[in-house]
Amino acid sequence: MAKNEPIKQQYIPRSYLKNFGVEGNNGNYFVDAYRLEDDLLLEQISTKSICFQKNLYTIPNAEIDRKYDLEYHYAEHVDSEFPKIYKLLVDENVKILTSEQKRQVLYVCLSLYFRTPRFLNHQNAFTDQILDRMLLYADENGDVKFTFEEEKHEFNIKDIGKVRHEFKERNRIKFLVQHLEKWKEFVDFKYDCTINVHRINDEDAPLITCDNPVSIRGVKSTRFEGLFNPDSVITLPLDTKYYLEIFPNSIADGQTRINRMVHDRDYVFTTNGIVQINAEKLIIGKPGTIERHFEIQSSYEDSENGEQFVEKAKYKLEQLQKFTELFEKKGLTSKETVGQLRKMLSHEYFKDEDQLIQMKRLLIAAGHWNQNPK
User: Fold this and answer.
1) pTM (two decimals)
2) What pLDDT is stored for residue 2 in this prediction?
């Protein structure tokens, strides 16, 4: 085998993982990784040694110079592009994207959802269960016959290892084709979305990530409700301080601006909790941040802290819903809407909400703020 054949293929690119690591020698980056299966914290491990699978994207039965085309595509059009996308998203001076930049943000960031082997692993586990069950029905000669997905299968139990391999290879080929089709279709579907980037203002409450960092969930239910559900919100931690949010299609505006918001530890508590739930095998973070994550989670289990969190979240939700209703019924410049905005900005829970502050500035510039005194 040629030395340059890229059989070790990263499904979460190192250009993303480095944002949760520290730089070592020769440009290598190191992270802490918490292994969920045995509650083991692996400290200072190279980003090269996690989130990869051998020959995941290798195209079977292709010419030698084409079998790694998909891996090369990811390397050129996603992995090498992520630093540029990341720079755009975390630069708070960037307010507006071009149409091309917005599409590239979606293309690159959403790839971290479609290219992971999560669904492939689930399919492999399912077919293993099918095969295990079929073994129970082998005849006296050890022969097994059954139909699965409208295809007839026949083998002897002594060949089960080979059969399992064939099923998994068939699943992998299906994964290669389907994930590319769904990825492109989903980017087109989400293009009119609203893009938000949240900054955490608490240095002692860092964000973490995982081996399945893109979360797609219902905006109200917080559960996965189907890939093309128009009410789904998509989130992705960008580093320990910034978090990407792609709003549901049902409240999309089709614009290319980036809405920038500021949040505190409460937001970190909820978002890191989502990351942990979404993880397949690993939680990943800068040295010390995973321990800090668990400390924050434990602190909210305290009854007093938990009650304060629920009270704050409830208040903010109620006030934002009231503002949205007034905005939709009476318009941004109405006395009632401006009054509600004043009320929120005067409360400590909303003092760092950048989007609300921008609305206030817009109203001041248009002459609508002072004509509606408190």
Assistant:
1) 0.80
2) 45
